[in-house]
Write a structure and sequence with these properties.
single chain; mainly alpha; 4 helices
């Protein structure tokens, strides 16, 4: 009898360098070459949803640089349990003193 696993999350972690490389490649294909997510996913051998997640992860990862703020940690990936909808909350941007802080909301 095999030991019971605690769920898929610990077994589905991907090396950061692979995620970053794939994310940059998807951004290049979608923004640089004008491919759709479906076309980019086919070209890279990924599923469409994974391709979409890598694209938005790369965009969220570089967002603090666009505002001249140093990122403190990696953003969670959109479309997962850590960030089920919308753009992830990034402390350096959305927290007090950040350029996207919305005051008392």
């Amino acid at each position: 009898m095999s030991p019971q696993r605690g769920g898929p999350y610990p077994y589905l972690r991907l090396d950061l360098s692979i995620k970053a490389t794939q994310g940059v490649e998807v951004v290049e294909l979608v923004l640089g070459r004008g491919l759709t997510f479906r076309q980019a996913a086919t070209a890279m051998g990924l599923s469409v949803s994974t391709c979409w997640r890598r694209y938005w992860w790369a965009m969220d990862w570089t967002l603090p640089d666009q505002y001249g703020v140093k990122a403190g940690r990696l953003p969670p990936m959109r479309g997962t349990r850590a960030c089920p909808r919308g753009r992830p909350w990034i402390e350096e941007l959305d927290g007090p003193g950040g350029p996207l802080h919305r005051g008392g909301i």
